[in-house]
Amino acid sequence: MERIPILKMNEFLLVSIQVDMHDRLAMTLQDDLTDRIVRDRARGVLIDISSLEIVDSFIGRMIGNIAAMSRVLDAETVVVGMRPAVAITLVELGLALPGVRTSLNVDKGMELLRSSLARGGNGHRDAGR
Q1: 1 in any annotated domain
Q2: pLDDT: which is higher, 113 or 98
Q3: Residue 10 is part of a domain; what is its CATH number?
Q4: How many domains does the chain have?
Q5: Quick one: which of 3, 30, 100, 111 could link to 67 by a disulfide (CB 3.0–4.6 Å)?
Q6: Domain annotation covers residue 30
């Protein structure tokens, strides 16, 4: 079965989507990513969508769901590399993607995650973690 690689970089997970997303692949990514957040005790997730030319409403909702699940598992999520056409499509579809932070590229996204971590993250950190 096709899977999207999830790389561990210190306390963060990096997902770079390099293939066209279909519904089953998005569901697999969601499951794999939540498992890895718990297993690796990740404090942040960076999702690079710069290779995606099209994001439909299902994939948009999946990105929002991944961010929500990450928050529940005590990790921040940043989506980077969104093309202007994708942003326009998401707005036209009425997908607000609450809880999804965005940045222009991977470097800026990592800075955003690091600064969030330095400020104490999302306020739900467990001191024993």
Answers
A1: no
A2: 113
A3: 3.30.750.24
A4: 1
A5: 100
A6: yes
Q: How far apart are CA 9 and CA 90, in angstroms?
A: 29
Which pLDDT score, from 0 to 100, does residue 21 have?
A: 86
Q: Name residue 103's beta-bridge partners.
A: 80
Note the helical H segments in 1-129.
23-40, 57-72, 84-92, 106-118
Residues 6+ positions from 97 with CB-CB distance below 8 Å: 60, 63, 64, 67, 90
Question: What is the C-alpha separation between 1 and 10, in angstroms, rounded?
Answer: 27
Q: What are phi and psi of 119, to 5 degrees?
A: -80, -5
C-alpha angle 63-64-66 in degrees, rounded to nearest 5: 65
What pLDDT shows up at residue 122? Answer: 54
Question: Domain limits at 50?
Answer: 6-118
